[in-house]
Design a protein that fits this description.
The chain is about 70% helix and about 5% strand. The relative contact order is 0.13. The mean pLDDT is about 90. It has one domain. It has four helices and two strands. The chain has about 130 residues and is mainly alpha-helical. Helix 1 (about 5-25) runs parallel beside helix 3 and helix 2 packs across helix 3 (about 80-110). A hairpin with a 2-residue loop joins strand 1 and strand 2 (about 75).
Length: about 130
């Protein structure tokens, strides 16, 4: 196994998510300040959760060959920071995408179709003609 492979995969995944976010302006590119605050909050929550789990003995550092070997704290590899960042970012981009699709669907549902418009226009024209007789 190649040392650093996992970290590299996380960095590529984060970069890919940023490209998608930028392209469709879903999260950070929609509102950078708010997005950064929400992303940072997610990272803090997940790292706090990890710290509590480490302190209680639920987590310990793995010894996989794909890890870089650098720890931010005992039993907290640097890859975990990138993972929780990716997880938070993925969640928010996914949420923004689903919300956009639902909003679009709702807007399409509320907008009368062309045939409905034509039917309404024809009915109004017929009613107007009847009124003139």
């Amino acid at each position: 196994m190649i040392r650093g492979l996992y970290l590299g995969a996380l960095v590529v995944s984060l970069a890919s998510m940023a490209v998608l976010d930028r392209r469709w302006r879903l999260f950070l590119w929609a509102d950078a300040r708010r997005g950064a605050i929400v992303l940072l909050a997610g990272i803090v929550v997940f790292l706090s959760w990890d710290a509590a789990a480490i302190r209680l003995g639920f987590f310990e550092r793995g010894h996989g060959q794909a890890l870089v070997g650098v720890e931010l704290a005992p039993h907290l590899p640097v890859e975990e920071l990138f993972f929780v960042t990716f997880l938070s970012y993925l969640t928010m981009v996914g949420h923004a995408l689903v919300r956009r699709l639902l909003d679009r669907h709702e807007a399409e549902r509320d907008t009368p179709r062309e045939t409905e418009r034509e039917t309404a226009r024809d009915a109004a024209r017929d009613a107007h003609r009847e009124a003139l007789r």
